[in-house]
Design brief:
By secondary structure, this protein is α/β, with parallel strands linked by helices. It has eleven helices and 14 strands.
Length: 349
């Protein structure tokens, strides 16, 4: 079996990340002891994927805490709050970012009498715990979701929800991997996922390392393959799931879900409980990040000549709950109606 992939980790009081912007052509790890650099790496998608962003943000808070360890407690608290605000501005859609920041902030506030130097050490341990728990959650999601997949046939995934998008193992790819490891004869179809090509660059790189059977396709091929019977299920990750089951994921997911519905193919979301935003009533309340036009123009040969044309580049779309067959979490599988089943899962956590 291929070596496990850990996109974000802590080493010698530094954050170490795989630079995902260089894959698959080059594997490079970056190291930093700067919270600001962690924030910049989240913004520029050196690290991406909702759970991995959460882990990175937690470590960013830990770095900020270490830099404030020799300050007074009041100065420490003010500095940590500024770090939280800076990290919160990086990516608006992925709720795991805000979940992790709140967890780190709550931990600090729950230890009001602890010295800054000691609290900084404890915050490093808390960030490590977030990473370790995310990895175990992904393994559980994989086991829970593997049972839903067919014994054989093609399964489509969109974008990258593998080890690179999490602390390790993956959510959607974790489901595919767990099914394959238990002996199911599935064949993965990974679409390119324009404009940043995370499916082509990252998911295919992971599947190839694992030795899983897969085929890369362009984003506009999935409907044709569903009609031919070559795709019999689909599973993706999510960056935020509303309380009613509406799910935000990489742009293009909505089209995949609609095509699945048309062809009577189950469409599944795989995400940890931390991705479910119970304070968000529905998909209309989820903020959608708009990214730079150059991401779209950059994949067009000669695209730089389009200096005056309008370019839209929403990074995510929202799939209404009516198109989702089930939401696979680390606390169990939720089925429609999701308002009830997600609430029940929350109560079991």
């Amino acid at each position: 079996m291929a070596d496990e992939i850990f996109p974000v980790r802590w080493e010698d009081n530094m954050v170490v990340m795989i630079d995902q912007t260089l894959l698959p052509g080059e594997y490079r790890e970056l190291k930093t002891d700067s919270m600001e650099e962690v924030a910049e790496w989240i913004e520029t998608m050196v690290v991406r994927g909702a759970p991995a962003i959460g882990v990175a943000a937690a470590y960013g808070m830990a770095l900020a805490a270490l830099s404030l360890a020799d300050k007074s407690r009041d100065e420490f608290d003010v500095g940590l709050s500024k770090a939280r605000d800076r990290l919160a501005r990086t990516r608006p859609t992925a709720v795991n970012l805000f979940w992790a920041l709140s967890r780190m902030t709550d931990f600090a506030e729950s230890h009001p009498s602890t010295s800054p130097s000691e609290l900084a050490k404890r915050l490093v341990k808390e960030a490590d715990l977030i990473r370790e728990q995310d990895y175990e959650m992904c393994r559980t999601i994989g086991r829970n979701g593997a049972e839903l997949l067919p014994d054989e046939g093609g399964v489509l995934t969109h974008c990258n929800a593998g080890a690179l998008a999490t602390a390790g193992y993956g959510t959607a790819v974790g489901v595919l991997r767990a099914a394959w490891e238990m002996g199911k004869k599935i064949h993965v179809y990974s679409d390119e996922t324009r404009p940043r090509l995370q499916g082509a660059r990252l998911t295919c790189w992971e599947l190839n390392r694992l030795g899983m059977p897969f085929t890369m396709i362009t984003d506009n091929m999935s409907g044709h393959l569903m009609k031919q019977g070559r795709i019999v299920a689909a599973v993706t990750g999510a960056d935020r799931v509303a309380a009613n089951g509406d799910a935000a994921n990489k742009i293009g997911t909505y089209m995949v879900a609609v095509m699945c519905k048309e062809h009577n193919i189950p469409f599944y979301i795989a995400a940890p409980l931390s991705t479910i935003d119970y304070n968000c009533p529905d998909g209309d309340s989820i903020p959608i990040e708009e990214r730079d036009r150059e991401e779209v123009l950059g994949i067009i040969p000669g695209g730089e000549v389009y200096t005056d044309i309008d370019v839209a580049n929403p990074a995510f779309d929202v799939t209404p709950a009516k198109y989702i067959a089930a939401i696979i979490t680390d606390k169990g599988v939720a089925y429609p109606p999701f308002t009830e089943s997600l609430d029940k899962i929350r109560g079991n956590s």
